[in-house]
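Consider this pair:
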Amino acid sequence: MRSDQSSGQGRRRDRGFVTAETAVALPALVLLSALLLWGVVTAAAQIRCVDAARVGARAAARGDGNAGALAQAAAPAGARVSVATGGDTVRVTVEAPSSAPGRLGGALSVRLHAEAVAAREDVIGSTGGGGRWPD
């Protein structure tokens, strides 16, 4: 009988510990979930930057005058697109900001960057090969 009484007293002293542990653990889980979600969103934005640079480089290589607009349309919101032509290549650079949600945004800000280079098609045929690719 004595063991029943001592275990009952132990339970009374432990009462409320589960509530206190939950009160500490839940905000930590919410913060962790928010950071994981931000990481997934940032990875998706990086992929969009890479795709936008690739689309812009392809369009600029074909001689399309609105390559920058095409790249801007494929890029994430707030992205900056630049198209540079040099020699027989074109280079498209896409930069976009990505900051964490809420108050963490200032501390966890990342600058996404993607770059694509393509050979200009208008100079490929002018190298004396008669418009054909070398064998």
Notes: The chain has one domain: 2-127. Strands lie at 80-86, 89-99, 109-119.
